[in-house]
Amino acid sequence: MAFRNLFKRYIPHKESIASNSIIRLFDEYLHDPNIWHIHRRSSAGGAAIGVFCAFIPIPIQTLSAAALAILFRINLPIAILFSFLANPITVPFIFFYSYKLGSILFGLEENQITNIIPENTTIIEWFNTIFLNIWEPLLIGCLILGLISSFITYFLIRLIWRIGAVVKWGNRHKLK
C-alpha cells in the first residue's frame, strides 16, 4: 500500500528511536511488536496521539507522545513524528489560538492581558505577572484544540488509508 510505504520511508527506525536517551527510559516496553507495526489503526492512533501531545503547553511533547503510544500500544514512531507539529514556527500560532479559545470560554476581554504587561520586565517578573494570569485559558484552549485536532487527524488518516485500499483493490480487480 502506498500510504504504508510513505510512512515506512519517513518515520524513524526502531534502532534510532531505541538509542534516544529519553526514549531509553521505556526500554523494557520497546520490545512490544504492536508499537512498531504499520497498519491503519496503529498509524491513525499514533498520529492522533502525536498531534494531541503537540498541543500540550509543556516542553515534553515527544516524551508524552512516546509514553501514550506505549500505553495504548499504537505506532510509536508515528506518534513521535506527529508530536513535532509543535516546533518553533508553529508554537506561537498554537498558543495564540489556544489562548484565544480559552479566554473566550473564560469570558476574558482581549485587552485584559495587554493592560497588565509592565515595561522592562525580567523573566521572573513576566512569569509572576503574565503567565500566572494566562495559564488557565491557555491550558484549557490547548486541551480543547488538541482533542479536536487529534480526532480530525485520526479520522482523516483512517479515511485516506481506506481510500488508498479501495483504489488498490480496484486496480487489482481491473488487472484480472
Structural write-up:
- It is a single chain.
- The protein has helices spanning 2-10, 14-18, 40-54, 61-72, 76-83, 91-106, 123-175.
- With 176 residues, it is mainly α.
- The chain has one domain (2-175).
- Helix 3 packs antiparallel against helix 4, helix 3 runs antiparallel to helix 7 and helix 6 (91-106) crosses helix 7 (123-175).
- The longest helix is centred in the last third of the chain and has 53 residues, at 123-175.
- It starts with a helix and ends with a helix.
Topology readout:
Elements: H1 2-10, H2 14-18, H3 40-54, H4 61-72, H5 76-83, H6 91-106, H7 123-175
Helix pairs in contact: 3-4, 3-5, 3-7, 4-5, 6-7
Beta content: under 5%
Radius of gyration from CA coordinates: 20 Å
Number of spatially distinct domains: 1
Q: Helix proportion of residues, in percent?
A: 55-70%
- Based on secondary structure, the structural category is mainly alpha
Arithmetic mean of pLDDT: 82
Q: How far apart are the first and last residues' alpha carbons, in Å?
A: 19 Å
Work out the number of β strands: 0
Oligomer: single chain
Low-confidence stretches: none
String of helices and strands? HHHHHHH
Shape: globular
The number of distinct helices, counting runs of at least 4 residues, comes to 7
Q: Please summarize the sheet with the most strands.
A: none
